[in-house]
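#structure-requests
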Amino acid sequence: MLLQNILHNIKYKTTMQIDDININKIEYDSRKINKNDLFIAIKGDISDGHLFINSAIKNGAIAIIVSEKKLDISVPQIIVDDDRKTLAQISSNFYKTQIEPFDIYGITGTNGKTTTALILKYLLNFKNRKSGYIGTLGIQAFKEYKKNLSLTTPESLDIYKTIFNFKTGQIESAVIEVSSIALDRKRVYQIPFKIALFTNLSQDHLDYHRTMSAYFEAKKTLFQQIKKDGFAIINIDDNYGKKLFGSIKSQKKSFSLNNNKADYYFETIDYNIENTTGIIHSPFGKINIQFPLLGSFNAYNLLGAIASQLSLFPNDYSKDMNLKTLPPIPGRMEIIKTKQHGTAIVDFAHTPDAMEKIFNTIKIIQKTGKINIAFGCGGNRDKTKRPMMGKIASENADEIILTNDNPRDENPLAIIDDIKKDVKTNYQIKIIENRKNAIAEILRVSNKNDVVLILGKGDEREMEIDGKKIPFDDRKIINSWIKKNEN
């Protein structure tokens, strides 16, 4: 594509003539540059793409986009004010005609994005509307997740590339988890969403946003990108959701656990260790529902997904809906049963709200036994939530072991000290920094009727310590321990 076409509707200055330059592809990683590629230098938190301009040119870049003009550069420099906004714009210009028509569903909120996205993807695929997924678990077109992107919401260029690949593979739509940081950094800038769904908002990412108000304002921007024939789908039980619902001018539908003023809500609901059943009120009639996910938070996730499906496809309505073939959501309330040491549950919960909801769920479905937990908090992230999580654990768990959870560049014991600050007085906590040993110990002290919560990492396959990522999977650790210690 001609460089001038890629720069359509973008304000820029250039150091050389660019009239006849033809671009093979766009890259923001100089290592991926080949002959006749366009390199865009992005300023990141850790590194600055401007430092890799010479490397990009050496690898074959025919032009570069910069936010800071460099001296002695042999190829044209296109100088822009906003590097991330420009990345989204050039990605849209380069891929747009190749990906449309294509329906895109965006899910945002503090908790529940992954589960809601995968339920919606399941519902769409169940009706033969082939849909792909982009989010925390990676990329999924059919069965396997490809974890080749490290961000919940990838950079805009990666999103457009993935959607182009989806369409090439006959995929008709994409369900995308949209994080607040992605919205703030314009990773989904100009992407037209058919559905924008809000799950909830509670404390997280304050290391980045600083205030809950700024966090909420970032989330709100998703709902400014809804297509004219699209819908906003919002949880109005959440205070921020209620506020958001009142401010939206586009087509919108609300969901709630039991508010009969909502468009979608549960008239009855019953939780047990195997599944959740109930009756959903919808604008089209009652829906008898059975699905293999636990807890009220998953009931919310289901409501949001069903509201999204039926808002766009009302003919999909059925008075009976059995989702027993819904596959497990990796690392989300994932159950591993032992013979003598209780039921282990692995979950990604890494916020106070998510942790509290899991405890509430277990208390409803557990008949006898204790609740034991091993968890930690991530390093270089919101420190203010750490003592809140320690307090919640000490108010609900019988046994607690504090351990590592991606300490990154922080001192692991300093993180644990933060967690302990608001723990109930005289509550005895074990500290086992090595997460593998902590999991082994919490299983060892648990009995047959106990529930063992291993929280924080979920489906993650690595542990990040001092800038290094080492293989680590909570589920593999649990299964290995069971094999060695149970008959």
